[in-house]
Design a protein that fits this description.
Elements: H1 2-25, H2 27-56, H3 65-101, H4 111-126, H5 134-238
Length: 239
Amino acid sequence: MGGISAIGNKVVTKPLLKGLNYFAKDPAKAIAYTTIASLLVKDGIGCYMYVNQSLNNKKIPEDKRKFVAALDLTNGILMIMTQLLCFFGMRKINKSLFPKLFKKSFDKEGNVLKTLETQLRLNQEKANIPKSGKVIIRKEYDKIKQGFFDIFSFVTELVAATIFAKRVVVPFLATPLADKVKRKWSATDGSKDKNSSTDEKQNAKEEKQISNPYDTFQFISNKNQNLSTNLLAKYKKTA
């Protein structure tokens, strides 16, 4: 029992505690990474299922199943890679994009903070409230700024990964890649298809050569037989 509990502690407890500590330390980052990881896992499983279904789908001709599966695999890989690139790319862009979009509230120079400090001190003087120190004001300001930045980053990163990557980038890249896969597939199977079609034409030609004389002879024989029968019937009637 002691060995099992030790193994369970290493496999379950420690990773769980580590994950909880990570969430407690930086919840916004942990939630963002967990969300994109779940999306990638979902798309990975979906890609596997689509490829497996295409390979075993009896409604698709057997000689085309691998081609359809190759397209599904290409689309799945593109979807995963573009989501990763767009997510981390947007995460990097947000560091400079956020202050530009919200420069009236959260500028890099700190002019907004100075204005807030001055206005807060004036309000405290009018209300006869003890003045708050600069450290307290800056701390609260930074807390609000970080909260807005976390929400902004989370939304824009997910939009970039799920909407821009999956609905814009992947369809844009998948079409030419599908054409390349199709051409490559046709090139590898072209000789086989060509040989099979040549054999089929040759067999059809030989069958035609064999069957035509018989058909012609049979047609003439039947015709002559019908003529002879009609003539005999005629003579029998006249007689």
